Amino acid sequence: xxxxxxxxxxxxxxxxxxxxxxxxxxxxxxxxxxxxxxxxxxxxxxxxxxxxxxxxxxxxxxxxxxxxxxxxxxxxxxxxxxxxxxxxxxxxxxxxxxxxxxxxxxxxxxxxxxxxxxxxxxxxxxxxxxxxxxxxxxxxxxxxxxxxxxxxxxxxxxxxxxxxxxxxxxxxxxxxxxxxxxxxxxxxxxxx
Length: 192
Description:
Elements: E1 2-5, H1 10-19, E2 25-27, H2 45-60, E3 64-73, E4 80-81, H3 94-104, E5 112-123, E6 126-138, E7 154-156, H4 168-174, H5 176-190
Helix pairs in contact: 4-5
Protein backbone atom coordinates (compact mmCIF):
# COMPACT_ATOMS: atom_id res chain seq x y z
CA UNK A 1 0.00 0.00 0.00
CA UNK A 2 1.29 3.46 -0.91
CA UNK A 3 0.40 6.42 1.25
CA UNK A 4 1.53 10.01 0.86
CA UNK A 5 2.68 11.73 4.03
CA UNK A 6 2.00 15.40 3.40
CA UNK A 7 5.40 16.58 4.61
CA UNK A 8 8.89 17.32 3.40
CA UNK A 9 10.26 17.31 6.95
CA UNK A 10 12.84 14.52 6.64
CA UNK A 11 13.01 14.06 10.43
CA UNK A 12 9.26 13.49 10.67
CA UNK A 13 9.21 11.20 7.63
CA UNK A 14 12.05 9.07 9.04
CA UNK A 15 10.39 8.93 12.48
CA UNK A 16 7.06 7.79 11.04
CA UNK A 17 8.50 5.35 8.46
CA UNK A 18 10.20 3.50 11.34
CA UNK A 19 6.79 3.00 12.97
CA UNK A 20 4.87 1.86 9.90
CA UNK A 21 4.52 -1.80 8.91
CA UNK A 22 6.74 -2.84 6.00
CA UNK A 23 3.62 -3.28 3.83
CA UNK A 24 3.11 0.50 3.74
CA UNK A 25 5.34 2.51 1.44
CA UNK A 26 5.54 6.11 2.55
CA UNK A 27 5.82 8.81 -0.12
CA UNK A 28 6.82 12.38 0.66
CA UNK A 29 5.45 15.48 -1.04
CA UNK A 30 8.68 15.59 -3.07
CA UNK A 31 8.03 12.00 -4.24
CA UNK A 32 4.70 13.08 -5.81
CA UNK A 33 6.09 16.29 -7.32
CA UNK A 34 4.55 18.66 -4.77
CA UNK A 35 7.10 21.39 -4.16
CA UNK A 36 4.82 24.24 -3.13
CA UNK A 37 4.34 25.31 0.46
CA UNK A 38 0.93 23.99 1.57
CA UNK A 39 -0.89 26.80 3.37
CA UNK A 40 -1.38 26.26 7.10
CA UNK A 41 -3.91 28.98 7.72
CA UNK A 42 -6.26 27.29 10.19
CA UNK A 43 -6.40 28.52 13.77
CA UNK A 44 -6.29 25.03 15.27
CA UNK A 45 -3.89 22.11 15.07
CA UNK A 46 -6.73 19.88 13.79
CA UNK A 47 -7.61 22.46 11.14
CA UNK A 48 -4.08 22.57 9.75
CA UNK A 49 -3.83 18.77 9.56
CA UNK A 50 -7.13 18.69 7.64
CA UNK A 51 -6.04 21.51 5.29
CA UNK A 52 -2.80 19.72 4.38
CA UNK A 53 -4.40 16.32 3.80
CA UNK A 54 -7.22 17.81 1.72
CA UNK A 55 -4.74 19.81 -0.37
CA UNK A 56 -2.84 16.65 -1.42
CA UNK A 57 -5.98 14.58 -2.01
CA UNK A 58 -7.74 17.30 -4.03
CA UNK A 59 -4.76 18.54 -6.02
CA UNK A 60 -2.82 15.29 -6.56
CA UNK A 61 -5.48 12.59 -6.10
CA UNK A 62 -3.55 10.51 -3.58
CA UNK A 63 -4.70 8.82 -0.39
CA UNK A 64 -2.63 10.57 2.20
CA UNK A 65 -2.20 11.64 5.76
CA UNK A 66 -0.97 14.89 7.21
CA UNK A 67 -0.09 15.92 10.71
CA UNK A 68 0.17 19.10 12.63
CA UNK A 69 1.78 19.45 16.00
CA UNK A 70 1.79 22.17 18.59
CA UNK A 71 3.38 22.73 21.96
CA UNK A 72 0.76 23.96 24.42
CA UNK A 73 2.11 25.68 27.54
CA UNK A 74 -0.27 25.95 30.48
CA UNK A 75 1.09 29.28 31.82
CA UNK A 76 0.68 30.80 28.33
CA UNK A 77 -2.96 29.68 27.92
CA UNK A 78 -1.96 27.03 25.39
CA UNK A 79 0.50 29.14 23.40
CA UNK A 80 2.45 28.75 21.17
CA UNK A 81 0.02 26.01 20.07
CA UNK A 82 -0.86 26.22 16.37
CA UNK A 83 1.92 28.83 15.96
CA UNK A 84 4.67 26.60 17.45
CA UNK A 85 6.79 26.41 14.26
CA UNK A 86 6.82 30.19 13.80
CA UNK A 87 6.62 31.26 17.46
CA UNK A 88 9.72 33.46 17.13
CA UNK A 89 9.01 34.54 13.53
CA UNK A 90 8.45 33.37 9.98
CA UNK A 91 12.01 31.99 9.72
CA UNK A 92 10.71 28.94 11.67
CA UNK A 93 14.00 28.51 13.55
CA UNK A 94 13.88 25.95 16.38
CA UNK A 95 16.59 27.65 18.44
CA UNK A 96 14.88 31.04 18.17
CA UNK A 97 11.57 29.42 19.18
CA UNK A 98 13.12 27.69 22.21
CA UNK A 99 14.99 30.86 23.27
CA UNK A 100 11.79 32.90 23.07
CA UNK A 101 9.83 30.33 25.09
CA UNK A 102 12.53 30.01 27.76
CA UNK A 103 12.73 33.77 28.12
CA UNK A 104 8.91 34.12 28.19
CA UNK A 105 8.73 31.53 30.99
CA UNK A 106 11.73 32.98 32.85
CA UNK A 107 10.98 32.83 36.61
CA UNK A 108 7.54 31.30 35.95
CA UNK A 109 6.97 28.41 38.38
CA UNK A 110 4.30 26.78 36.21
CA UNK A 111 6.19 24.96 33.47
CA UNK A 112 3.49 22.40 32.63
CA UNK A 113 3.09 21.78 28.92
CA UNK A 114 1.92 19.22 26.43
CA UNK A 115 2.70 18.35 22.86
CA UNK A 116 -0.35 17.63 20.74
CA UNK A 117 -0.28 15.95 17.34
CA UNK A 118 -3.30 15.51 15.12
CA UNK A 119 -3.07 13.22 12.08
CA UNK A 120 -5.70 13.48 9.35
CA UNK A 121 -6.01 10.46 7.08
CA UNK A 122 -7.80 10.77 3.73
CA UNK A 123 -8.33 7.25 2.39
CA UNK A 124 -10.93 5.70 0.10
CA UNK A 125 -13.00 8.89 0.15
CA UNK A 126 -13.19 9.00 3.96
CA UNK A 127 -11.46 11.21 6.51
CA UNK A 128 -10.27 10.06 9.92
CA UNK A 129 -8.54 11.99 12.71
CA UNK A 130 -6.09 10.62 15.29
CA UNK A 131 -4.82 12.64 18.26
CA UNK A 132 -1.77 12.01 20.42
CA UNK A 133 -0.81 13.98 23.52
CA UNK A 134 2.42 13.90 25.54
CA UNK A 135 2.32 15.76 28.85
CA UNK A 136 5.43 17.09 30.50
CA UNK A 137 7.27 20.23 31.57
CA UNK A 138 9.45 22.89 29.99
CA UNK A 139 13.01 22.71 31.32
CA UNK A 140 15.07 25.71 32.39
CA UNK A 141 17.62 25.19 29.63
CA UNK A 142 18.25 23.13 26.48
CA UNK A 143 19.55 19.59 26.96
CA UNK A 144 20.34 16.91 24.41
CA UNK A 145 21.07 16.76 20.70
CA UNK A 146 18.57 14.19 19.41
CA UNK A 147 15.15 14.97 18.02
CA UNK A 148 14.11 18.32 16.61
CA UNK A 149 11.91 21.33 17.31
CA UNK A 150 11.28 21.91 21.01
CA UNK A 151 12.64 18.46 22.02
CA UNK A 152 15.68 19.87 23.94
CA UNK A 153 13.43 21.80 26.38
CA UNK A 154 10.55 19.33 26.82
CA UNK A 155 10.80 16.74 29.57
CA UNK A 156 8.00 14.14 29.30
CA UNK A 157 6.11 13.01 32.42
CA UNK A 158 7.85 10.25 34.39
CA UNK A 159 11.22 10.90 32.70
CA UNK A 160 14.27 12.81 33.93
CA UNK A 161 15.52 13.55 30.42
CA UNK A 162 14.23 15.69 27.57
CA UNK A 163 12.93 14.31 24.29
CA UNK A 164 16.33 15.32 22.86
CA UNK A 165 18.15 13.06 25.33
CA UNK A 166 16.11 9.84 25.20
CA UNK A 167 16.49 7.21 22.51
CA UNK A 168 14.32 7.39 19.38
CA UNK A 169 12.78 4.03 20.33
CA UNK A 170 11.54 5.32 23.68
CA UNK A 171 10.48 8.63 22.18
CA UNK A 172 8.43 6.85 19.49
CA UNK A 173 6.54 4.94 22.19
CA UNK A 174 5.72 7.89 24.47
CA UNK A 175 5.61 10.94 22.20
CA UNK A 176 2.53 12.74 20.91
CA UNK A 177 3.45 11.84 17.33
CA UNK A 178 4.18 8.26 18.33
CA UNK A 179 0.76 7.92 19.99
CA UNK A 180 -1.14 9.47 17.06
CA UNK A 181 0.87 7.35 14.61
CA UNK A 182 0.08 4.17 16.58
CA UNK A 183 -3.64 4.97 16.25
CA UNK A 184 -3.14 5.52 12.50
CA UNK A 185 -1.23 2.21 12.14
CA UNK A 186 -3.85 0.27 14.11
CA UNK A 187 -6.54 1.76 11.86
CA UNK A 188 -4.62 0.92 8.67
CA UNK A 189 -3.96 -2.67 9.82
CA UNK A 190 -7.65 -3.16 10.60
CA UNK A 191 -8.72 -1.68 7.24
CA UNK A 192 -6.22 -3.20 4.78
